[in-house]
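User: Fold this one for me? It's 3'-phosphate/5'-hydroxy nucleic acid ligase.
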Amino acid sequence: MKHEEFDVMNVEGGSHVKMWTKGVPVDEGARNQLRNTAKMPFIYKHLAVMPDVHLGKGSTIGTVIPTLGAVIPAAVGVDIGCGMMAAKTTLTATDLPDNLGPLRSAIERAIPHGMSPKTRGFKGRDTGSWENPPLPVDLAWAQLKDKFDELCLKTPKLKNTNNYRHLGTLGSGNHFVEVCLDEVNAVWFMLHSGSRGVGNAIGSHFIELAKQDMRRHFINLPDQDLAYLPEGTEHYKDYIDAVSWAQKFAHMNREVMMQNLIAAVRTVISKPFETHVEAVNCHHNYVQKEHHFGKDVLITRKGAVSARPGELGIIPGSMGAKSFIVRGKGNPESFNSCSHGAGRLMSRTEAKKRYTIEDQVKATEGVECRKDVNVIDEIPMAYKDIDAVMHAQRDLVEVLHTLKQVVCVKG
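Assistant: Here's what I get for 3'-phosphate/5'-hydroxy nucleic acid ligase.
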């Protein structure tokens, strides 16, 4: 392993930080967060930082955090199990209709997306949830319900979340559904979502419990969002149980959406086609036990993807930018990981100040998608250059397919 593959940031009083960020900007706020996380006493070996790294809550997004004897709930975050799914089809570019508007509309009808405005006293149905969930949702929920009922015995507030009605739905923000073409004009379906409202409730609940524990035991932290749960405590066990369930929910959420996406496309394209010719379904916000450097370690990937030798993953760009299907090289120094996307270059607020609808229209030329004021924060220029990000991690993954979207649905 050549040292020059990554930069090393030494942290006084903490673990060192290995950064695959050559040629990619990393702002000082993100560096400070990395220093704070590296000072936690249970970090194992080092932090591994991906080229899409940027400021997050507590810990930076785009970071692999290996721990012994503790977990940081805010590092996993509230969109537990958020990730990507992609499936290659037997369709080609010539099979797509000249007018892609009806295809986008069919997808939008088939997959609830967005959310109702958070207004005082609002009691209606969240527009991003199902009113009458279809059969695929019922079949998937049947595999999740018993464990969910167990979780509710410990945490009753989970009963009042959107759980069953959010299964198979997209959400908002940077979540999306896309129809893409690869380098030989094969059609792919790709989507990005996580554990929705119930995952948010689980994450928020345990983040607060961890903060309460820190205050109770007078534990001073460099950032309160680094509050942790020590292994062997009741909250730790309950969290691991809940987060594992939420990760399963997220995985199945993407599967259900993909089923409904395929069915929607078939209402517009009459030519018979097959899907899952090549398929990937991967998390990029999650925690699990793995074996590294001779030990069983808890690995938190906060905006990072597992990239074990031969393992397939997805690295999306942004609206109007390329995405990649990759194969892991199994780099042990990165804890077998790679980036989860391009990574934000600026905040959503800054993007809305800096860019206009005209900029958005120009940046997404050739893509059938929303081009209104409410998605300006997702403009490609608000993200890092995906080509530079891919070059910085060439020792972590190899590119199998390069995808370019032609239809993009956002909440």
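One thing worth pointing out: Residues 346-382 form one domain.
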